[in-house]
Structures are given as C-alpha cells and as structure tokens.
Amino acid sequence: MNLLSVQGMGVFWTCCILLICIILVHAFRLARLGWRTLRKKLPPEKPKPKEPEPVYYLVEKKKKRAKTEYDKPKQIRFKD
Prior knowledge:
By secondary structure, the chain is mostly helical. Helices cover about 40% and strands about 0% of the residues.
C-alpha cells in the first residue's frame, strides 16, 4: 500500500520542481551579477576637500518683563 495517494504524490513532486526552479533562477541571477562585477574595475575615488560647515549662533529673544503692578479691576455692567 502506498503512503501517499496519486494526487498527493503529484502535489509533492510539483512543489519539489517549483523549489528547484526557484533555486536555479536565483543562483543564475546571483552568478550573473557576480560575473558582471568581476569585469568592472572602478577608478579609485579621490577624497574631496570638505568645506567647513557654517556655524549658527542661537540667540534668545529678549522678553518683556511682567508687570508687577496690577490695575484696578474694571466693573462690568449687564443690560437688563
């Protein structure tokens, strides 16, 4: 007696073939990318002179002094 039915074996082998194809495609793409980088030789980069960064001074705004004297309260009149 088989452990898997015919449909189960078909699903199993389909998944195996799919995984093998995915692995082969990724391996091919990585190999091609590596091959391209072997042929290219980049020229050495010359360090660019750094320009001095501007210095910003933080200046606090002058604040008005709070009044120490209070005015007399205003009387409010309502219309009847």
